[in-house]
Each structure stands twice: as C-alpha cells, then as structure tokens.
Amino acid sequence: VRRLFSAASLLLALAAGGCAPKAAAPQWADFGGDPRRGEVLIVRAGCGSCHVIPGVQSADGLVGPPLTHFSQRTMVAGLLPNTPQGLVNWLRHPQAIVPGNGMPDVGLSDAEARDIAAYLYTIR
Ligand code: HEC
User: Fold this and answer.
1) Atom nearest to 106 CA in ligand 1
2) CB-ligand 1 contact for 104 (6 Å cutoff)
3) Which end of the chain, N or C, is more open, meaning fewer C-beta atoms within 10 Å of its C-beta?
4) Given this model, what pLDDT does residue 32 score?
5) Least confident interval from 20-34, 44-58, 62-76
6) CA nearest to 9, candidates 92, 67, 72
7) CB 105 within 8 A of CB 93
8) Is 106 touching ligand 1 by the criterion CB < 6 Å?
9) Is the CB of 47 within 6 Å of ligand 1?
10) Dihedral of CA 75/79/42/68: which sign?
11) Whole-number Å distance between alpha carbons of 34 and 57
C-alpha cells in the first residue's frame, strides 16, 4: 500500500512539476512545518553525515549532494519538483522514488518531514 501511494504521489508530483521556471521559495507557515523543530530532527536523523547543510553544526557529509541554496532549487534529486509536497515525499520515501539510491528511508512521519522541509526552505 505504501509503495502504491508513493508511486501515485510521484506521478502527481511529476505531472504538476515539469520544467516550470523557478518557483517562489515557499514559506514554512504555508504547509505547517516548523523550521526550528526541523533543525533538531535533521541533527537527530543524521542527515549531516551525508549532506553539507548550511546552519546545521557538523553537517558536512559528502555522500549526497550539498543542500546549499536549497530554497532556490527547482528540483529535488533531479526528479521531483521542489515544492513542499515533492520535498516531503522525497524525505519520507527516497527508496520508493529512486530504488537503490544512496539515501536511506529513515522512517520520518509526515509531520517530521514537513518540519525538515521547512528548515531546508530557510536555506537561501
Ligand atoms: C547515507 C547517506 C544519506 C543520508 C543519511 C541522507 N541522505 Fe539525503 N541524499 C543522499 C543521496 C546519495 C542523495 C542523492 C539521491 C539521488 O539524487 O538519487 C540524497 C538526496 C537528498 C536530497 C535531494 C538533494 C538535491 O540536490 O536535490 C535532499 C533534500 C536530501 N537528500 C535530504 C536529506 C535529509 C533531510 C536527510 C535526513 C533526514 C538525508 N537526506 C539523509 C544521501 C543521504
């Protein structure tokens, strides 16, 4: 069921996204995430062992792409539109979206993924 849901949301996200020009950076209040909680969750989930994440102490990993200028990106993982929902889908289900890629599913709830997304959108 979870895989089906993910595939469906991926298709929706792709249909909605395309190659749209730079989207305005979403504000965290628009989708119910809290960037301060997100920062705590990023540290707890160990995202920084694989990513450079501006503003997060010791987040200097080089396994995945650096998350610099994240609010200005148009795509997530070169595949999903960089919208709050696209980002939340990626954060929750990276293995369903790109099977075998280097980012593990870390078991985030929807609320946790929203908080983390809110933090990532504070990165200019
Ligand atoms: C074991 C290493 C690893 C961990 C832990 C990890 N990631 Fe990733 N992440 C990756 C890799 C590798 C990619 C590239 C995947 C791809 O493009 O197919 C990626 C991609 C991403 C992207 C898309 C980046 C872009 O340039 O579009 C985001 C956002 C992201 N990760 C956030 C996180 C967050 C937040 C966490 C913690 C919850 C996390 N990652 C944990 C390895 C990791």
Assistant:
1) 38
2) yes
3) N
4) 86
5) 20-34
6) 92
7) yes
8) yes
9) yes
10) negative
11) 18
Tell whether the model's pLDDT for residue 15 goes beyond 60: no
- pLDDT band at 100; cut points 50, 70, 90: very high
- Evaluate: CB of 43 within 6 angstroms of ligand 1: no
Counting residues of the chain whose pLDDT is more than 70, the rounded percentage is 77
| Token pair 């989708």: residue | 31
CB of 113 sitting under 6 A from ligand 1:
no
Whether 50 lines ligand 1, by a CB cut-off of 6 Å, is yes
CA of 1 to the centre of ligand 1 (A): 24
Query: What tokens appear for 17 in the block?
Result: 């996204």
